[in-house]
Every structure is written in structure tokens, then in C-alpha cells.
Amino acid sequence: MKYAANSTVWITGASSGIGKALAEAYIKKDWQVILSARDENKLTEISNIYNHARDNITLAPLDLSKHDTIPEVVKTVLAKVGKVDVLINNAGVSQRCDAISTPLEIDKYIMNVNYFGAVALTKALLPAMLARKRGHIAVISSVQGKIGTRNRSAYAASKHALHGFFDSLRAETAGEGIFITLACPGWIKTDISLNALVADGSKYDIRDNRQEKGLNPETCAKRIIRAIESGKEEVIIGGWETYAVWLKRFAPRLLSRLLRRFEAK
Ligand SMILES: NC(=O)c1ccc[n+]([C@@H]2O[C@H](COP(=O)([O-])OP(=O)(O)OC[C@H]3O[C@@H](n4cnc5c(N)ncnc54)[C@H](OP(=O)(O)O)[C@@H]3O)[C@@H](O)[C@H]2O)c1
Fold first, then answer.
1. Which pLDDT score is estimated for 265?
2. Contacts for 246-249 with beta carbons within 8 Å, 24 or more apart?
3. What spacing in Å lies between the alpha carbon of 170 and ligand 1's midpoint?
4. What share of the chain is helix, strand, coil (3-state, %, to 5)?
5. Cα–Cα distance, 164 to 107 (Å, whole number)
């Protein structure tokens, strides 16, 4: 899809990691940028860095686990910016504990943020996109949206669920000017493991080696933007870990045996 210079993008999880890198890339492209996350101070820090582009930046703090609040945020954003060309459902929380030790409340919380949060925001914004017959929804899934590894049961489930929902939505809205891109990063060097939840609901607070040695978020953001601009339906981004996606398709039993021993730390 061709985008004019004054196009508008809404990025969730814009306060950190991949979302922050996406935000900075779009600010540098002179787009109108709407930034969401829970921590308004971190969003303000980003807009302060890009003071010269302040008029192009709208802060829309929100908590994606509080679904009832989302329609009002969408109403406020649309009243201010008029239209959203691209929505990037990027915010997410990971997990560092096995399925049996994970209380159901944590499973539900991770689904509420990663899956229902993206669904709720999309449903609130989609009518405005359909009315214009124009809109692109990008979803940051994961390699864990294609496979499941140890200590990621809720996280992998939430990412798999995104594929089901957004593949169906793509089929329903393809004739209505709506494009959908699912991006599946592997290991990206962000704070995701620090912020991941353990069994008691606290943060894991450890930097995993795999992420530390992963792709930098700026390169990941660049590849996500390229996928959106070229209208790709799905893109896998990362290093050797992304071969797991192909193994799952062509040698699933081999992958299953490898994953029994594999710790994604
Ligand atoms: N890093 C990786 O290796 C990797 C790999 C595959 C996929 N991903 C996916 O990429 C996305 C971005 O992750 P990241 O690596 O950039 O992690 P990150 O640095 O921990 O950033 C997560 C972002 O999500 C926001 N967020 C968390 N809970 C939220 C909530 N309840 N409501 C609204 N916003 C919330 C956080 O902001 P606040 O805390 O201020 O709310 C933060 O901006 C996630 O969907 C993640 O699953 C990451």
C-alpha cells in the first residue's frame, strides 16, 4: 500500500524495545504517530527527545488488560488525529515458568494483554478504518506464535491465538481495503525477559542470553515496516532460531524432539 507523507500510525508498547524502535522510525519518516503503553512518563520521554516533531506525536496511555477502557481511548485519539492508517498491535508480556506452576490467573493475564488486548483495540478502531475503506493492521506475534517451547505455555498460546484471529479477520476484510500483517520475531535484544512474568506474578528480572545476542530492535522495526509497506501477510524476523518455523512444517517430529531438551534462555 502506498502511504502519503502525513500518514498516521498507532503503536502499542511504544515505551520500550521493538515498539519504541518502531515509534522512532515513524517519527523520523515524519508520520503522525500515536504512542501507547501504560507508562506515560516513558512515552513523554520519547516525545521530548523528538521535540521538533512534537506536533506529530500523540500520547495515548492505555492498559491493554483493561478492555472496557479501550473504546474511550480510541474515541479520544480519533477526535484528535482524525484517522489511523496503520495500527501496530505490538505490546506484549512474556512468561518464564512451566505450565504446571503457572496459576490460571497468570495464563489469563497474558492472554488478556497479548491476545484480547490486541483484539479489543482492533475491534474499537476497525469501524473507522472500514468507513474509509483503508487501513493496515500489523500484529507483532513471535516465532512462539508458530511453535511452543518450555516455560512459554501461556505466551505461546497467546501468540498462536493472534494468528487464528487475524487470519480470519484478513479473510473477512480483504475486499474492504484492510491489510493485515503478522510479524513473527525470534530473539530481539529488548527488556522482554526482564518484564516476563513468573509463577507468583512478579517480573523475572533477568536478561536472557538469547535475547542479549539477538537482533537489535531497530533492525527488527525496519523489517516490520518493510513488510507493512510491501503488503506482506506474514514475516519471520530473526537469526537461526527462525529455522524452527520451517522445521515445524517440514520435520515436526524432529523439532518436537529438539524442543524437549531446549531451554529458550
Ligand atoms: N524481544 C523479543 O525477543 C521478542 C520476540 C518475539 C516477539 N516479541 C514481541 O514483541 C512485542 C514487543 O516486545 P519487546 O521485546 O519490545 O518487549 P518490552 O521491551 O518488554 O516492551 C513491551 C511493551 O509492551 C508494553 N506493555 C506491556 N504490558 C502492557 C499492558 N498491559 N498494556 C499496554 N502496554 C503494555 C510495555 O509498556 P508498559 O510497561 O509501559 O505498559 C512495553 O512498551 C511483544 O508483543 C513481544 O511478545 C518480542
1. 75
2. 248/146, 248/147
3. 24
4. 55, 15, 30
5. 18
Q: Name the DSSP letter for residue 111.
A: I
Give all strands of the β-sheet with 8-12 in edge-to-edge order: 57-59, 32-36, 8-12, 86-89, 135-140, 178-185, 234-237
- Contacts of residue 29, defined as CB under 8 A and 6 or more positions apart, other chains included, come to 5
Residue segments in the chain with a per-residue pLDDT below the cut of 70 = none
Per-residue pLDDT at 261 = 87
Domains of the chain: residue spans and CATH: 8-261 (3.40.50.720)
pTM over 0.90: yes
Q: Which atom of ligand 1 is nearest to the CA of 195?
A: 20
- Predicted pLDDT of residue 6: 83
Q: How far is the CA of 33 from the centre of ligand 1 (A)?
A: 18
Give the other-Cβ count within 10 Å of 243's Cβ.
14
pLDDT in tens, 145-158: 999 999 999 999 99
pLDDT of residue 105: 98
Q: Where does ligand 1 bind, in terms of residues with CB under 6 Å? A: 12-13, 15-19, 37-39, 42, 62-65, 90-94, 113, 140, 142, 185, 187-188, 190-192, 195, 211, 214
- With cell 489469563, the residue in question is 108
Residue 175 CA, ligand 1 centroid: distance in Å: 31
The H or E element that residue 236 is part of is strand 234-237
Q: How far apart, in whole angstroms, are the C-alpha atoms of residue 163 and residue 98?
A: 23
Q: How far apart are CA 159 and CA 236, in angstroms?
A: 13
